[in-house]
Amino acid sequence: MNHHTRKANGGRAAYLSLSTLALTLALSACQLSKPVPAAAQIESMSMRAAQQGDVVAESRLRDWAQRQVPVAQRELGLLYLARPDQRAEAQRLFMQAARAGDTEAAFQLAQMLRNGAPGIAAAPDQAIPWYRQAAQQKHARAALMLGMLFNNGEGVGADQAQGARWLSVSSDLGNAHAMFLLSNAYREGRGVERNEAHARQLLEEAAEHEYPPAIQELAMAVQTGDALSARDELRAAHLLKEAAEHRHNNWNRF
């Protein structure tokens, strides 16, 4: 092969390389220019991936997550959370989404840090800021967890007043468990001024939200009667039956 032929072949190779690079860049630009779906569409895609094992749906979630879409990062993290060998990656994705302001991601990250996972040591103290972030963004379960952690001194110094404060936030957001715990706090004067009337009001609200421990405790109160309510054995019987049914339904569900 002479010098001119080698030069021509080299020119063609360089041209092909540049053409391939240009095509790759064009495809990447095209991919990046595609509009990101709405959060509801991403969550629907996540359900397909989780419930149907749809590999195409999972691939799309990965693509959106790589494009730094917080909802996609969170949903992919939830998908990986169910796979023991991918939980470290789930934690990384939750961290990215939480830092971008995703409320549910902050809560899931806090849960992982509090409880630990295979290869991830439990660190309740590191969970506190993420629970707080989610609670401040009106995540009822995050506020509930903060209240419980402050009450129990887990990951933070025990502080009954702070515990009651966060339980109140969760209760106002409609969490029945928080209503029940806050009712006990008002009845016993833990972190708040003792107020039996408000305690009963919260207990009634928790029962209306079908929280079995609250229904059972309310049944015991009306069965014997007290300063807040007359004795009512018929209502007590109905409440006990309701509590048993809800416990049975929850057992079957989980």
TrEMBL record:
Pfam families: Sel1. It comes from the Bacteria. Gene3D superfamilies: Tetratricopeptide repeat domain (1.25.40.10). PANTHER family: ACTIVATOR OF C KINASE PROTEIN 1-RELATED (PTHR43628), CHITIN SYNTHASE REGULATORY FACTOR 2-RELATED (PTHR43628:SF1). This is Sel1 repeat family protein. It comes from Rugamonas fusca. The lineage of its organism: Bacteria, Pseudomonadati, Pseudomonadota, Betaproteobacteria, Burkholderiales.
